[in-house]
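TODO from last week: model G protein-coupled receptor kinase.
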Amino acid sequence: MGKAHRREVESYAQDSLCGGGKRNGRSKKWKEMLKLPHISQCEELRRTIERDYSSLCEKQPIGRLLFRQFCDTRPELKRCIEFLDAVVRAFPLAPTCHFLHGGPGGMGLRPGGGWGVEINMSLFNVIFFISSCCCAPFSAYQETMYFSRFLQWKWLERQPVTKNTFRHYRVLGKGGFGEVCACQVRATGKMYACKKLEKKRVKKRKGEAMALNEKRILEKVNSNFVVSLAYAYETKDALCLVLTIMNGGDLKFHIYNMGNSGFDEQRAIFYAAEICCGLEDLHRERIVYRDLKPENILLDDRGHIRISDLGLAVQIPEGETIRGRVGTVGYMAPEVIQNESYTFSPDWWGLGCLIFEMIQGQSPFRRRKERVKREEVDRRVREDQEEYSDKFSEEAKDICRLLLAKDPKERLGCQGRGAVEVKQHPIFRNINFKRLEANMLDPPFIPDPRAVYCKDVLDIEQFSTVKGVNLDPTDDDFYHKFVTGSVSIPWQNEVLHLPGKRS
C-alpha cells in the first residue's frame, strides 16, 4: 500500500499523461524532463529546506497531497482527514479549512457567514481534538518516504529555467520594457505569456527597482483574480517573467472595439465583482495596486478577468501609509494627485472609474481620444462632478458616486472594512461572492476561441534599438535577484494538472 501511495503523485503528473498517445503540446522528451532524481541527490535539500508546516503541508500543492497520503496510512490521522472531508462536503462554499501547524486548544467552529458556520481550524488541532493517541504527525511525516518524495519534486522544481524550457510563439502585445509573447512549457505543454524586459532598456530608464518590485509582488500573490508568476529567467538580452496567459484580450479592447462602446450593466457589474475580489486579495497582502484601468484587466478563455501589470503596486508596512504621485492620468485618485498620504483608497477610486467607463463607454474625467493637458484632467478629478447618462441605473450611479468620492474618508471601501463594504452594495445583490471566488459562476461573455481580441501583430509598435547603454558586471547583482526560476505553487499546480490528465 505504501508503494502505491508514494506513486500517486507521479500518476497525477506522469502516468496519466499518456491517454490516447497524445502529448498535448509536450516535448517527446517530457518523461525525461520530469524524471525525479535519485533520493541521494536531495540530501543537501533535506538539510536546508525550511521545516515550516504551513508552507510544506498547506500552501504547496504537492506537499499537501503527500502529507495527506501520509495521514491516510495512520488510522487515527485518517479519521481526521475523513472528518475534514465531511465538513467540506457539508459546507462546500464555506471558507477553506486552513491546516495550520498548531497545538491543542485552538480548534473552533465559530459562528459567522451565511451558512451559520465559519471553518477556520488547524489540522493538528482537529487531530488532537479527535484522537489523543496522535503524537507530532508533522515530525513523523518528515521521517517517511512521503517527505523524501516531496524533496525529489522540490529538487526538480529548483532546476535551472532557461529559454529552452519553453517554445516561443507569436507576439501578443508590448509592455513597458519589451514585447509580450505566447510561450509553452516543453515538459508539460502548458501555455503562458512571456513578458520580456530588455536589459538595456531597463538600465537606460533606471527601471531596475520597478522591475524587481513587480516580480516580488507577483511572487507573493496567489489569487484567481490576479495574474500569477510561474517562472523568472534571463536570456543574454532580456529578463523574462512567465505569467498566466489571458487569451480573451483586455477590457479596453472589449469596451471600444466590439461594437457600441461600453457594456450592458450586468456584464460591467460581473467584472467589477471579480476586480473587487482581486483587490481584496492584494489588500490582504497589504499591496496597493495604484493602476486600475481597462487595459490592465485581462480576460481568460472562459471569460473571467485577472488584474495584470503590477509595476506600480507597492506593499505597505503594517500601520503605515505611503505617498507617491503614480498611476495613469485620468485614473489617479485626488489624494494621489495632491501627493497626500494613503493606503488602499486609490484602488477603490480606480474601481469607480472602471465601472463608470465600462457602462458609459468613456472614462469619467476624459473623453475618448480627447486632446487635453494633464493639468486640466487633474483639475477635473479634484474639482468636477462626473456626469451620468441614461445608461446608468440608480444603483450604478450610486456605487460610482460612492467610489468616486473626492475625500477618501467618505469613499466606499475606506470605512474600515475594505472590500466587504463594496461587496455589500445593493448592485451586487445577485452576485454570490462565495461561488464567484470558487470559480463557480458563469461569466456573461465567453471569448470565441477562433477570435483574436487584440491588435494585429503588425499594428503593435516595434521597440527601437537602445543605444548608448552597455551592460557590465555591476548589473549582475540585480539579475541574480530577479532570476529565481520556478515559483513553487504555480509550478506544482502545473505538474499536478497537466493537459490530458484523467480525472
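Done. The chain has 22 helices and twelve strands.
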